[in-house]
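Support request, please re-run this one:
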Amino acid sequence: MYKIERLLVAIDLTEMDDILISYTSHLAEFLKSEKVYFVHVSKNLELPEELRKNYPDLMAPSDESIADSIQKKIETAWKTNYDCEKVVEIKEGDPSEQILKWVNIKDIDMMVMGRKRKLKGGGIVPQKIAKVAQTSLMMVPEDFEFKLNNIVVSVDFSKHAKLAVEEAVAISEGKDISLTLVNVYTVPSGYHKTGKNYDEFATIMKGHAKTDFRDFVKRNNFPEDLDCKFVLDNDDSPADKIFGFASDMKADMIIMGSKGRTGLASILLGSVAEKVVKYDSDIPLMIVKEKGENMGFLKALLKL
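Re-run finished. Output below.
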């Protein structure tokens, strides 16, 4: 596990900013982060030529004035006494592309982005960012006030699940936080060829999942008292099962790893993680990535 020292908050000059700043103030304290970048990307900081001719006194918002307004938001919305360095950056261009580049330039450990449902403004598309960014991602729903009593970690017992569990253990260590792992298992399509029915083979697969969990804990030297629940995915909807379980557990955060692959594809989200990112949920979601994995491919993927 790497320490999450540098956070980047994507600011879009909407009501969502106050929620993100407030949430980040608590998150930075939990993670003991050292620096937070508040980044806003404007597609164009200049007024069109025709407007400038017709209205010579009209002034486009400068990067300085935008930065000043964001700084004022930070002063009012930062809710904790945790003191870390805060930096406001204003960029021009395509929001997703600029954010991805800034993540690389400033060696960001985790991005904090909003998950909008009713609030105005399209902002930066989280799905695109999550898909190719070389850093972990925290997605915060628009109506969520920070609390952290229950964490659910989605695990498939891979090396990326290991990263997610490590982060969850680090966050909850020494605090009164309930930590529950969940494994969503499936029944292979050819089960009928074994002569067993669906329910019988589901029981077999659950048994294998329990064995895999025990091996996972032992292999990674995790605490033996880690609790893992097993949920059958009987309709090929893993995101439904993960969020449904987390909702039943009244989770305040879901943590999962970004299951990697090989070669060029290894910096992309796994299929389950991608479905979870797109899921319309009111629970904050942390996607933990292995920092710097295949950095050489970043430029090629910026256009995805």
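Residues 43 and 142 are 23 Å apart (CA to CA). DSSP finds ten helices and ten strands in the chain.
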